[in-house]
Structures are given as structure tokens and as C-alpha cells.
Write a structure and sequence with these properties.
Elements lengths: L4 E7 L7 H13 L4 E6 L4 H4 L5 E3 L2 H4 L21 E4 L5 E4 L2 H10 L4 E6 L1 H12 L4 E5 L15 H22 L2 E6 L6 H10 L3 E3 L7 H11 L7 E6 L11 E2 L9 E2 L2 H11 L6 E5 L11 H19 L5 E6 L2 E6 H4 L11 H8 L7
Parallel strand pairs: 1-2, 1-6, 6-7, 7-14, 8-10, 8-13, 9-10
Antiparallel strand pairs: 2-3, 4-5, 11-12, 14-15
Helix pairs in contact: 1-10, 6-7
Amino acid sequence: MEKVKRILVLTGGGDCPGLNAVIRGIAKRARKEKNWEVYGSIEAFNGVLNEPQEIIRLTSSRTKGIHVKGGTILKTTNKANPVKFPIYHPDGTTTFTDRSDELVKKLKALKFDAVINIGGDGSQKISKALFDKGIPIIGVPKTIDNDLSATDVTFGFQTAVQIATDSFDKLVTTAESHHRVMIMEVMGRDAGWIALHTAIAGGAEICLIPEIPYDIHKLVKRLELRYKKGKGFANIVIAEGAMPKKGTITSSAGDKGSEHVRLGGVAYQLSKQLKDAGCKAEIRETVLGHVQRGGTPVAFDRVLATLFGVKAFELIKEKKFGRMVAFQNNEITSVPLEDATRECSFVKKDSYLVQAAKGLSISFGD
């Protein structure tokens, strides 16, 4: 009798529309083969490291219909990096330790034939570290920021843009009704893809992104052109990581165990900067925050995520470990994990997308 082969699936980092579609794609594709079982680790690698362990069998009843649901049935966390695992002390301090060898030992004891790690840049760096320690692993890229250079697009991005655009459309009508400047803040720590796509789709007057620092005085002049005799309105899209040419990014201390500072609130900072620089119009601010991460994924993201899941299983079947699934030139392919995490994908100032936006008279404040 042929040996039953076991796959462990996990989702790490921030949640993202389409995660459940990947999980379902893996499980459904595996069920078409003989002697394959798929399991899930709860809250990324915490499910393996915790005592008792939290690992569930991804049966048909658990995965059916989940492709239309947001979030992840396996839960997720950005505070469980096994290479830099947080240790909380009674005095309130936090230190970090390397638990990767412990994790490798536990994975081998569980006798999994392969691991599929679904996550962004940080998660795939973990995948690479575990692969180097002998774990047969496949990565699946996930980020609404669309900032992984090894894949042309990531699932979740289109849904985030759709949510942001729907919200922007609603703000346009209230801005026009009250002759106000509306500032809408979207996600984008280091890359401005969501803001840029939303600005073009929604017809923004101003788009501010991390890659192009802005001059507040140029923004005030642009807004003045929108107002005549006190009448007019304007809509601004700003990424959470945007910053002025003179100044710093808006951030606060991250949550305990997180390696990142917490961004958010740049819309309010921009509002104050505009007023201090002489903007006379009424200004209102809207921060979308985690709304962009939630809800039902759009059709494009469901399809892409499902194809990623199928491809991840097929790479395991072919024993092509140490690779990340990718979408390149309209094809589902894969790249070595070292290439997957080599560099991020940032908006380039001379890109056609930026130049087209400027051709539509969208200002970046540069």
C-alpha cells in the first residue's frame, strides 16, 4: 500500500482577501490524487510550536465554499516569526529568540512531507530560512500592497483597490456637496500601489505615495486652483507611508511582538499641514484602515488565489521545493525563494502609471 503523504498549510502576516481560496485550491487539488492529506497550522507556525499543538485536517467539509469568504480559516499572526520569536517578560519588556531549530525538529517529528507557507515578504524570508535548514517548503505570495517584485500581481490587491475606490466614490459626492477637501488614507507602508490605482480609478486631484515625497506648498497651490470665490471641492488619496519632503512619516510604536512600527493617521497630519500652509477650504479626513483587508475577494483575486493553491500542490508533487508560486507575463509559474525576497516592488516615478496619472492632472506634490 502506498504511503500517505502529508502537507502542512499555514497563513502568516496580515490577513488578506483570497487566503481561503488558496487553502481550498490546495485541498481540492490534493484530493484528486491518491494518498494525499492536507493539514493546517493555526496562527502560522504557532500551531506547531504551541503546546498542545493546534493542527487541523483540511477536510472537504472544512474547505467547501470558503473561497468566497474573507480572512483565513487557519487564523494568522505577524508575531510568530520562528527566526525572531517574541518572548514577553513579566516586567513588560520583549526580547526575541531564534526558535527555527525547534520548529524544524517538530515538523520532522510530525512527518510532514511538505509545507506550504502563504504570506508576504516576511513570511517568504521565513520560508527561505526553513528551506535552508532542510524543510521541503513552497511559498505562496500574499499582500494587498502588491509589493513583491517576483510576481506581477498578488491576490488581495484588486479587492483592496475595489474597496478603496468604492469608498473614494462616496467621498467625492459629499466633497462636492459641501465644497470640501476630502482626504482618504489607504494602506501602503512602503509602496503606493493601492493609492495610485485608487486615484486613477476614482479621479483624484492629488495622490500621495511613499515613493514620491510631497511639497506641501505645491499641494496648497493645486487646491487653490480647484476653488473659485469659495466654491469648489477636491479629493486626495494618501498612502499611510507617504511623507513630506521636509518631515517624517506618521507612526507609533508597534504592538508587542511585532517587528514593525504602526502606521496610520497620516491623513490627519496632512490636514494640519495644509491648514498651517494656508489652505482656506474645509478639510475632512477618512482613514480606511483594515476595511481594505476584509470581506469577500473580488473574482480576479479568487481566481488568482485558487490558481496559486493548485500550483503550490503541483510543485510539491513534482518535488520542486524551495520555490514560490508567481504570476508572470499572464502565466502561473514559480521562482526560487531567494529571488522571491530579493527586492520589493515599488512605484517608480518614471513609470507609465505615474506619468499617465500626471497626464490626467493628478498631482503628486513633487
